[in-house]
Amino acid sequence: MPVSLLWAVDVYGRVYSLSTVGQQWEHCRNTHLEFKRVTAAQQCCWGIGCDNSIYLNVHASDLPVRYQEDTYENQRWNPVGGFSERLLPSDRWQWSDITGLQHQPMASFQLPSSSWEWEGDWFVDENLDGEPTEKEGWTYAMDFPATYTKDKKWNSCVRRRRWLRYRRYKDMDTWAKIPSQQTALPDPFSDISCGGWEISEEPRGRLSLWAVSLQGKVWFREGISHHNPEGSSWVEVPPPGEVVQISCGPGDLVWAVLWEGHLIVREGISRDCPRGTSWAEVESPSPQVGAIHVAVGVNVVWAVTKDNKVWFRRGVNSHNPCGSGWINMVGEMIMINVGLNDQVWAISCEDRLVYFRQGVTSSELSGKTWKAISIPRDGERSHSSASANSQHSAGCFFSSEVRAPSVVSDAELDLEHPPGDVAISNVTFPGPDSFVDAPTNSSSSQPCEVVPDEGEADVLSSNSDVTITGSGGPPDPQWSNVDLEEAQIQNGQTGAVADSVDSCSLSSVATYSLAMEDQYGVDEHPLWAWVSGGGCSVDSHSQLNWFTMLQSVQSMSLSMTPAQTAAWRKQIFEQLSERSKREMDNFRHYEQAIEQSVWVKKGAMQWWRDWKPHKWMDVHFALEQFSGAEGHKDGILFIYYNYYEEKKYLHAFINEVTILVPVLNDSKHTFAIYTPERTKQRWPIRVAAGTELEMYDWLALLSVSCCDSRGIYGSPSKQAIWSITCKGDIFVSEPSSALEAMPYPTPCDQMFWRQVGGHLRLVECNSLGIVWGIGFDHTAWVHTGGYGGGFFQGLASSTDNIYTQTDVKSVYIYENQRWNPVTGYTNRGLPTDRYMWSDASGLRECTKTGTKPPSPQWTWVSDWAVDYSVSGGTDREGWQYAADFPASYHGFKTIKDFVRRRRWARRCKLTTTGPWQEIPPIPLSDVTILPCAAQSSVDTVPVWAISNKGDVLCRLGVTLLTPADLRLLALKYQSALSPSAGDCWYHIPSPAKQKLKQVSVGRTSVYTVDENGNLWYRQGVTPSYPQGSSWEHISNNVRKVSVGPLDQLWIIADKVQGSHSLSCGTVCHRLGVQPMEPKGQSWDYGIGGGWDHITVRGNSMEPPRICLPSMTEPSPRAAHTPPPTAP
């Protein structure tokens, strides 16, 4: 992650920057000005000073900001004196620009501002189109204007040469004032925003700067580029009303807020027209409360209304800059800002802290939660409170009434607030594991948690005696309850009021007045007024150090002395040693029932190394498995390798392995090993065996070891989740009840998947244990209840219910030809054409002789033949025609068709074993089983299917004992034969301009996927109106969807970001699905890529109901007090 800066302005107008690798705010000390607002880009930052002038801070870099000035000296030949400066009246200026229309003498060139300096004097450019000219740099032509040459000819009547001079921008990393125009602006600026660097095909360094004046006018700064960072001039862009604030995104989004609270959007922004063409009005998020602030990114718009509510605009993109609707978000802010990658920062209206929106990704643009950036400013780390007046550092003000921070969820603040160890009236002093950093006011009397800084008073009490000592107090401080009112009375009687730590009392703290001291002391957290993240490059995977300072300050403030730590550790060690000796001596005479054993299996493998350049390395592969005293088995997997003649190793614990996947490879027998961490990275451990048999031996051994360590044996349960890879391998996972628990579900990347023998294209199940599958050849299969098969042998596979399974698929290659005017269509294409024998994309050469089956398990069962069943149709010879590669193909030739192709197919067959039994005789293309609840008393369920000819079928009487019942209804012709088949079909229109390819139905939810990979949710589905009302878009890049019997939502997603690359075919789980929020909140990414199908229709386990503990636990006496009886 490149280092970039987050900019902010505090309430005093001081400008600070925070690095993405830093842990404190850095003050911009090179200016004595106070700023109102700033707006940042990656290469610079703009600001409005308190003198109402515009300032620019250009970041220093290895590439200087240089600008080349040039002018041309023109001369004409005279028969008397030769070439001279005397030109004809119709000629151009003696000193001009390249066109000759503008007069440009050398003396007319002036520096734009004091921020520039000349690098040298004028000099002659002695090059013409990259070739050297004569010494003086003259180029010759017959007349003005014409084509110039470096050689003088007999008819050369004019000549010119180019003079150059460079100027450099010198005020780097400092605030430089932008010079005012010759025509002064009518009034000063009140707001400013920069962006536009991602407008399509924009030159490097090009920026768009928008500003708002106090009269509500909108201005645009022209000419900003890398070579001219200050720009050239201001141009007014008339708005439809008085504007109070404006925001410009990195792309072509510009929104503004009107004085009345309405919002306007600038339309027509492009490279050729960066100012746009017109304004469009958008309604305020709340009709009663107008907007006061708006912030835009690439595809997002955030707004803040006058009641400090935060709103998110959905449906915003470059094609629809106005969006489609507002969504109310959690939090109350005074302003908000959107930076790079659509990341969001805001300033809270309550504590004036800068908050960062976590969880913002391309698929979840609204993010998940707000997290406070609670780190000090430079120069604050060494400050400690030595007096009672510095209690601000505890995060709380004291007065006669004390209010706690507002109650928000842990997910929003990412801070835990355990009950304190000391209760002083309404003020609570927490223990070492508790800390709060939030300002308060005196409007209510709620408990407030306080942590003293290092060097502050330690509280000691015995009954009613209260003393406060410094760091040199007793070596073993203890926390105890103190009666604040009693302490106040005693202090009032003694009249002891002191300023030092050694003599201050709790009474002086409890009666602290907010008006006595400046509320913005140096020890208090900074109060921010503005933040800008336009130049801050972070994303959802960035590791930031902005949120750890709170805990480090806490540990620093409450740390024990080395002597106390040593004594404490010694005491615990002695107690543990005594306990261990006492317990072991009581059982020494017992014999050991189970003997511990360790065994190791080793082998030579190849490993695809983790670092670049990635390549295969010869390694030693070892599995060390051991059994404990209680018979529990576990193990460790080692990979030993040499790195620059140094022996190193990589290891993975067997109980952390989540899946073992065979991988397709043309030349190696490869399999991948996943752990939760490597699943997040999308980078498994990939190893290759010498032979296919050796690979399957290792896979079987590792799979059994993983199952032993987790205690998983036998056939999959009725609640199991099934999935299939693109290769056709079948995997199953045993879900836990916490998988759908809220608010803390089991992460998807921690699920363990084991392989089941067999080969399928898709699989479906329900909670009765009925599982059906369909192969690549459209053959239907039913699960027999066994386990194992395939390469699993011995105890890893059941002895019965294992059958031989076959599958057939076709391999396709394309023959491509281009039309020749002489010979007609031929296999001789252009140099830029695709291969004449290729795959569907044309990027890979695939010939008849060079194309092999998908893997060694497949064998050819036919020869190559022309395939006529191609989308778009073919002619009699199987050809499809198009204007060029690639294009839309059709089955007839026209006069504009210059290329053609035809598809060749060859069938291959795979034979394996698994717990699957064939169901003849109708080939199927899709199947689904009626889901049931976990406690359902239903014994028979219908199985619905679609044949490969498009007929809708229903199979009745299917039970767990007879999962392949033979009663079949072809509903296309016999829909009235069974009440369970219904009496009619309703046509549901698909989403606009989309063609649906899959649908999945749960208890109350209906989801569908179209051919473009969009996931849609059907709104308004009720028992009385099952058709629903409309479609709502949920996500894109979705391959398959599965909705469970409890409305669980799982998908196979494409383009999931990993640490190395995008992953296609990833299992994803929708979080936050509840009856009141059936669409859920965000995605949790699991195993992938390479997955093609998943079904969760058998998982009907109700998630546990988790009751979060109350913030205030009732006292024991109150808990046992009987309720009052009614008279």
From TrEMBL:
<dbReference type="InterPro" id="IPR006624">
    <property type="entry name" value="Beta-propeller_rpt_TECPR"/>
</dbReference>
<feature type="domain" description="Peroxin/Ferlin">
    <location>
        <begin position="64"/>
        <end position="125"/>
    </location>
</feature>
<dbReference type="InterPro" id="IPR051513">
    <property type="entry name" value="Tectonin_beta-prop"/>
</dbReference>
<dbReference type="Pfam" id="PF06462">
    <property type="entry name" value="Hyd_WA"/>
</dbReference>
<dbReference type="InterPro" id="IPR010482">
    <property type="entry name" value="TECPR1-like_DysF"/>
</dbReference>
<dbReference type="GO" id="GO:0005765">
    <property type="term" value="C:lysosomal membrane"/>
</dbReference>
<dbReference type="GO" id="GO:0032266">
    <property type="term" value="F:phosphatidylinositol-3-phosphate binding"/>
</dbReference>
<feature type="domain" description="Peroxin/Ferlin">
    <location>
        <begin position="878"/>
        <end position="911"/>
    </location>
</feature>
<dbReference type="InterPro" id="IPR006614">
    <property type="entry name" value="Peroxin/Ferlin"/>
</dbReference>
<keyword id="KW-0677">Repeat</keyword>
<dbReference type="GO" id="GO:0097352">
    <property type="term" value="P:autophagosome maturation"/>
</dbReference>
<dbReference type="GO" id="GO:0000421">
    <property type="term" value="C:autophagosome membrane"/>
</dbReference>
<feature type="domain" description="Peroxin/Ferlin">
    <location>
        <begin position="137"/>
        <end position="170"/>
    </location>
</feature>
<dbReference type="Pfam" id="PF19193">
    <property type="entry name" value="Tectonin"/>
</dbReference>
<dbReference type="Pfam" id="PF06398">
    <property type="entry name" value="Pex24p"/>
</dbReference>
<feature type="domain" description="Peroxin/Ferlin">
    <location>
        <begin position="806"/>
        <end position="867"/>
    </location>
</feature>
<keyword id="KW-0458">Lysosome</keyword>
<protein>
    <recommendedName>
        <fullName>Tectonin beta-propeller repeat-containing protein 1</fullName>
    </recommendedName>
</protein>
<keyword id="KW-0072">Autophagy</keyword>
<keyword id="KW-0968">Cytoplasmic vesicle</keyword>
<keyword id="KW-0446">Lipid-binding</keyword>
<comment type="similarity">
    <text>Belongs to the TECPR1 family.</text>
</comment>
<keyword id="KW-0472">Membrane</keyword>
<dbReference type="GO" id="GO:0031410">
    <property type="term" value="C:cytoplasmic vesicle"/>
</dbReference>
